[in-house]
Amino acid sequence: MTGCCVVLALLASACTRRVVIPLPPDPDIETTVFLIGDAGEPDPRQPTISLDSMRRQAAEAPQRTLIVFLGDNVYPDGIPVDSIALNWPDARRRLAAQIDAVPPGARAIFLPGNHDWAESSPHGLYAIRAQAKLIDTLARGRDIKMLPRNGCPGPVSVDIGRLRFIGLDTQWWLHDYIVRDEHSNCVTTIGGVTSALRELVKSVPDGHVVIAAAHHPLMTGGEHGGYCGFGAPFKRVASASQDILSGANRRMRDSLSSAFRAKPPLLYAAGHDHNLQLLAGGKDVEYLAVSGAGSSGKAACAVYMRESYYVSQHRTGFMRVDILRNKGVLLSIYDFTSGGAHGAPFGRWLEFP
Questions:
Q1: How far are the Cα atoms of 25, 26, 103 from residue 30, in angstroms, in the given order?
Q2: How far, in Å, are 14, 25, 32, 207 from residue 28 at the CA level?
Q3: Contact, 243 vs 222, CB < 8 A?
Q4: Which of 160, 166, 269, 270 could staple 212 via S-S, CB 3.0–4.6 A?
């Protein structure tokens, strides 16, 4: 590591605002993970700024790239179960825009969000299955898929070099209607999911990096955390299941935290709130990321909290995580105004080289 990089790394650890850290030399990077959420409302009249920028970066080294879509892949109600529904063509367009942002040779995972479960409605299980099938069709044989599948909560894992990526469907915890039927073939209890997740993080070899991801955050300074917006104060006394302060959401987060405590992941990434945040974790996870700014028309506010390293609000954008071959993990955040202007990227070493 050069002296310049050392200085920048030390600055990154001390500063909570924008700090630019150059990307490591290409030969040193083993795996690059892009994190983008809530990208399911691309404007048909405007360029998809975040998706286009992400695609250009991923195309530079697609063979080492994993793109993770963090849920709410199709607004507002997911993929209609009936393909003759009037909104089916536009729902397909919204999903296709994201699949088109995956360059040839790269792999991608779509995680489910509450809107993908038909906006938490009674036929959500069937909507999430319909989306998985449509992703398979639009992928045309490429390594692009929905995980977990079939309305199952997971966890599912993908090992790439030093990386163990763990994906979860957190809407399974929060859905008020049917989450399994005779076609389900997965764990059906919260205890079973917690136990399986605990084993996945415990079994990671020393020196490897764990990134866990789902749609719902464990902490957020955005609307779902009871901040921002006209209705924010009411969410502190009468929260819906989609909000941090609700009982159902708390049970879901307690389940994940209990499992992670066995061997804390380096990063837990989520979407749900339409902004970009990097926060300090705690005893269960080292860092928490909210990357739900994939649709420019939905970009929303967030507040700085004592745990915040970085917050970007009312901007669209995504995060990039570069995992070095031997040691070192760099997270970079890219954001854009509605007019397409971008600020200097924020960078932080999550694991120092």
A1: 11, 9, 18
A2: 25, 6, 11, 16
A3: no
A4: 166
Residue ranges of domains in the chain, CATH in brackets: 24-351 (3.60.21.10)
Spatial separation of the C-alpha atoms in residues 132 and 148, rounded to whole Å? 9
Compute the average pLDDT of residues 127-132: 96
Q: Is 113 helix (H, G, I), strand (E, B) or coil?
A: coil
Alpha carbons within 13 angstroms on the beta-carbon side of residue 46 total: 14
d(CA 78, CA 72): 8
Host H or E run for residue 343: none
Integer CA distances (angstroms), 240 to 231, 234, 341, in order: 12, 10, 35
Instruction: Answer whether residue 147 shows pLDDT above 80.
Output: yes
> What tokens were used for 58?
């991923």
CA 129 to chain centre: 19
pLDDT over threshold 60, residue 176: yes
Tokens standing for residue 273? 């709130």
pTM for this model (two decimals)? 0.92
Per-residue pLDDT tens for 69-96? Answer: 999 999 999 999 888 888 899 999 999 9
Task: Collapse the DSSP code of 163 into the 3-class scheme (helix H, G, I; strand E, B; otherwise coil) and give the result.
Answer: strand
- Angle of the 124-139 helix axis to the 88-99 helix axis, nearest 10: 50
Cα separation, 67 vs 25, in Å, equals 20
Q: What's the rounded Cα separation, in Å, for the pair 299 and 275?
A: 6
Could you tell me the CA-to-CA distances from 81 to 31, 88, 126, 240 in Å, in that order?
36, 9, 6, 25
Helix, strand, coil share of the chain (percent; to 5): 25, 20, 50
Name the maximum alpha-carbon separation found in the chain.
61
pLDDT at 201 over 90: yes
What mean pLDDT value characterizes the chain? 90
- In the block, residue with structure tokens 């360059």: 103
